[in-house]
Amino acid sequence: MSEHKNGQSRRDFLLRTITLAPAMAVGSTAIGSFALSPAAQAADSTANGQSLPRDYQPTWFTAEEYAFIKAAVAHLIPADERGPGAIEAGVPEYIDRQMNTPYATGSNWYMQGPFAPDAPKELGYQLPLVPRQIYRLGLADADAYSQQQHQKVFAELTAEQQVSLLKAFESGEAEFSHLPSKLFFSYLLQNTREGFFSDPIHGGNQGMSGWKLIGFPGARADFMDWVERGEHYPFPPVSIRGERA
């Protein structure tokens, strides 16, 4: 995980990569291109006067697991001069709510063996674990690794220590007991992206901050008149519920 040296902001990197990583991708995708900024050091800060996300109590994650999620996603998409980050957009709420969906239980997945964890990734997912299990086991292993390295759980570390561990998770350098650390990191990153850019009906993208960042019109009935103009779309995005940014 190299530090940021080319003058481009983390938001620029995010915009370049939001369409590049499939849901099962396990590669270097995010942390390696980020440098630590003051905005990422506090998950409870505001961004450019933006309000904090609505109060939410997790229904699936434990309080300790949810503290890890909040601390980690604050680094994956940090608030900066261009707008809110993952915390302000409600990404932790989105991820928790996803744990109570068919996706999290693997209801639509083919989950019969044999499993070949060492097979090339082109052959598809090769573990007998559904997303719920990946999070539960991965969060336990991540905090155990944090305790081993720093004698504290992840959420209690300094921002610099948290980034260092996220680098180790992303690269696979961190040794987990139940699953590869880079697999756990890939799910956390992909779900963070989804929560930042999904419709607010799912709990994330609160205030449609993700859509405003990329100029996406949302669920407007018709915006095709603007597609060929080569102009900035002047109207704010609209959610499925009809809320306007």
Q: Brief description of this entry?
A:
One of its GO terms (molecular function) is gluconate 2-dehydrogenase (acceptor) activity. The protein is mainly alpha-helical and 245 residues long.
Q: Could you tell me the strand content as a percent range?
A: under 5%
Structural class: mainly alpha
* Element string (H = helix, E = strand): HHHHHHHH
Overall pLDDT level: 82
- Bulk shape: globular
Straight-line N-to-C gap = 35 Å
Number of beta strands: 0
Radius of gyration: 18 Å
- Biggest sheet layout: none
* Number of contiguous helices: 8
Percent range of helical residues: 25-40%
- Contiguous uncertain segments of 5+ residues: 4-8, 19-30, 32-48
Enzyme class: oxidoreductase
Signal peptide: 1-42
GO molecular function: gluconate 2-dehydrogenase (acceptor) activity
Keywords: Oxidoreductase, Signal
